[in-house]
Amino acid sequence: MGVQDLNVDIGFLATLAVGDLQVPAITAAIRLSYDNYDLWPPSLTFIDPRTGELAPPVVQAPDTVNGEVRNVLLGHPNGRPFLCVQGVREYHNHPQHSGDDWLLHRTAGAGRLAVLCDIVWRRMARNVLGVLVNVQSLPGLGTQLSMGISQGDVDLRQIPAP
């Protein structure tokens, strides 16, 4: 019997401000697959935290790239969303990153569990500010309600004085 490859499932918890309530919510859940590590970088896939099945996250992954804020959660040629960061197999296998080989980043720790968890937490959980609710009522068409998670720069958030 051989050693099995390591798979780690992790959920990232954020606190949603809903009025005066602080509601915990999983904003992203990932599976890191360390098969054939360290020749290959780990694979990072998004999963449903309840079932473990592949599922897109409920938030975006904003990051400042060359002075502008961009979502680094992109569509991969395999049809699944992927986090476009060094140290993730989907990044290094993407045709646009063919010149950015994994072996250049391996010794710097780019694919380590703690490093990847910190990246996901900062871009997909730490930056959650609250709930965005949109209600639209149109005569004859009824009412539409949509809800989403609001993200932004938590360091710029104003906290009212008591």
Q: Could you give a short description of this structure?
A:
This protein is mostly beta strands and 162 residues long. The chain has one domain (7-127). It has 2 helices and 9 strands.
Spatial order of the strands in the main sheet? 1-2-3
Counting helices, strands and paired strands, the structural category is mainly beta
Fraction in beta strands: 35-45%
Largest sheet, described in full? 3 strands, antiparallel
Helix share bin: 10-25%
Beta strands, count = 9
Unreliable segments (pLDDT under 50, ≥5 consecutive)? none
Distance between the termini: 62 Å
Q: Give me the Rg, rounded.
A: 18 Å
Outline = elongated
The average pLDDT value, as a whole number, equals 88
Query: How many H/I helical runs?
Result: 2
Q: What number of domains?
A: 1
Note the quaternary state here: single chain
Helix and strand arrangement:
Elements: E1 7-18, E2 21-33, E3 43-46, E4 62-65, E5 68-71, E6 73-75, E7 81-83, H1 89-93, H2 113-124, E8 128-138, E9 142-151
Antiparallel strand pairs: 1-2, 2-3, 4-5, 6-7, 8-9
